């Protein structure tokens, strides 16, 4: 890691200005240290104590820091780096503004599509955002599924609550002129409807970033996590992590792991299909071996305990041995669109 990269990483979690960070003479750091720093920031509210904790953590690794000054009046005292702040400003920054409700996860798939999960310890509420011009289609789809639309208010705007069997199940409305929101209350969670509909709000950048759970990666930490998750994975010729790092701003570890595995896996599947179509048996065999070896990819092995993505990936990777979906009756040749839908190729 070079000095410029380290400079950016420290800015992400230290409540100091750019001039201060530039004066630090550090040799090395890693994602684990950043996690410790981030944890310190979340539990110590006064920013001066936060800076002391950050400095102490870095000193423990590097020995000495000189020339550190606190950001005083007139400076940006945000705890976050410029790239993190800029990314968060582009997000809806929705929170259920109630102390009992916490953000469990958040994933941004593009600047107009993402999802958040909130919980009060007993109930869960899913919040998704999409392009605003899809709102009417969502309402129509729910009506066609048997829901009854009734007028509501959400985020200070007119909205629509969808009732199933007379009970609120979902709220659809606009966040702004560009984005719509889909709030999934869910069957059996009707009791939380009044709180969620009244207290879902757009909050400040810092308040939203402070609410991110520790499992969520943003800004430079997200890029570092991608580098870590790539460990032990064979890289297809010509593959570049750049586009993956540019997609989305925040991700929890499971979804980020799935994105990494999909990006690499889809590239290997493309090579496998291309080689078979060009009758290049050697290239097809090499791509197939790489895919079937995914059972040893650390990222997929880690994800097993949290969801089914790894098993789906391994199942389709295994089909490359025969070139057929062996679970179909009768077995059918593998198709690109089948792979795309199964493992999430773009």
Task: Summarize the structure in short.
By secondary structure, this protein is α+β, with helices and mostly antiparallel strands. Helix content is 45%, strand content 20%.
Characterise this structure:
This protein is 45% helix and 20% strand. It has 346 residues and is of the alpha+beta class. The protein folds into three domains: 3-79, no CATH class; 88-210, Protein Transport Mog1p, Chain A, CATH 3.40.1000; 216-343, no CATH class. Helix 3 (31-43) packs antiparallel against helix 4, helix 11 runs parallel beside helix 14 and helix 11 (253-277) packs antiparallel against helix 15. The longest helix has 25 residues, at 253-277. The two termini are 30 Å apart.
Global morphology: globular
| Integer-rounded radius of gyration | 23 Å
- Determine the structural class based on helices, strands and strand pairing: alpha+beta
**Largest sheet, spatial ordering of strands:** 2-3-4-8-7-6-5
Low-confidence stretches: 1-77
Q: Percent of residues in helical segments? A: 40-55%
Main sheet: strands, sense, barrel = 7 strands, antiparallel
Q: Helix count, per DSSP?
A: 15
Amount of beta strand: 15-25%
What is the terminal-to-terminal distance? 30 Å
* Nearest-integer average pLDDT: 78
Number of strands: 13
Helix-strand sequence = HHHHHEEEEHEEEEHEHEHHEHHHHEEH
Number of domains: 3
């Amino acid at each position: 890691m070079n000095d410029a990269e380290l400079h950016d990483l420290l800015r992400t979690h230290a409540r100091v200005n750019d001039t201060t960070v530039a004066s630090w003479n550090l040799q090395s750091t890693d994602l684990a240290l950043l996690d410790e720093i981030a944890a310190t920031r979340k539990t110590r509210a006064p920013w001066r104590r936060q800076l002391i904790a950050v400095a102490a953590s870095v000193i423990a690794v590097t020995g000495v820091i000189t020339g550190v000054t606190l950001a005083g009046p007139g400076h940006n005292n945000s705890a976050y780096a410029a790239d993190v702040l800029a990314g968060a400003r582009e997000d809806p920054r929705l929170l259920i503004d109630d102390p009992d409700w916490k953000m469990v996860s958040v994933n941004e798939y593009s600047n107009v599509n993402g999802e958040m999960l909130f919980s009060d310890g007993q109930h869960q509420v899913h919040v998704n955002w999409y392009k605003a011009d899809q709102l009417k289609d969502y309402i129509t789809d729910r009506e066609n599924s048997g829901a009854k639309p009734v007028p509501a208010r959400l985020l200070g705007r007119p909205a629509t609550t969808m009732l199933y069997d007379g009970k609120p199940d979902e709220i659809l409305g606009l966040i702004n002129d560009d984005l719509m929101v889909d709030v999934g209350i869910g069957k059996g969670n009707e009791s939380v409807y009044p709180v969620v509909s009244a207290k879902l709000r757009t909050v400040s950048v810092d308040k939203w970033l402070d609410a991110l759970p520790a499992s969520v990666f943003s800004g430079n930490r997200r890029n570092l996590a991608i580098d870590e998750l790539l460990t032990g994975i064979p890289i297809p010729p010509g593959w570049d992590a750049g586009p993956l790092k540019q997609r989305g701003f925040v991700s929890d570890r499971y979804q980020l792991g799935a994105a990494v595995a999909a990006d690499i896996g889809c590239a290997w599947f493309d090579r496998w299909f291309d080689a078979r179509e060009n009758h290049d048996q050697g290239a097809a065999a090499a791509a197939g071996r790489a895919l079937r070896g995914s059972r040893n990819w650390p990222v997929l092995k880690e994800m097993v305990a949290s969801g089914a993505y790894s098993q789906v990936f391994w199942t389709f990777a295994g089909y490359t041995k025969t070139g057929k979906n062996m679970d179909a009756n009768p077995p059918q040749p593998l198709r690109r669109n089948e792979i795309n839908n199964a493992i999430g190729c773009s």
